[in-house]
Prior knowledge:
- It is built from no helices and seven strands.
- It is mainly beta.
- It has one domain.
- Strands 1, 2, 3, 4, 5, 6 and 7 form a seven-stranded antiparallel beta sheet that branches.
- It is elongated and about 70 Å long.
- The N and C termini lie far apart (about 45 Å).
Amino acid sequence: MAKGSFNIGDEVAITATVRRRVTEDRISVSIPSYGFPHSIIDKTSTVKKGQSMELVGDVTHVDGEWVTMNLGVPVTVNMDTLRLVIAYQPPMRKAPLVDKPT
């Protein structure tokens, strides 16, 4: 799949930068092209300011070059900042949807 072509349901990742530790179990991260600080739960005490971390979520909306992904809350970012992790595969039916004619 070419970079920048995402579909609804795809699992994507974005690299965020740690801004600071807000509480004992929560840190603030800066997400590229998002424009707002985002807070996530992280119980490890080894995270430092400026460290990069990868956030993974599902695509919920695609609008031109902007993609909305679910990170607990919807986050809309530029398509160029995302990386495809797993493409969405619809579930396969075991039995046909309609009955066989008799």
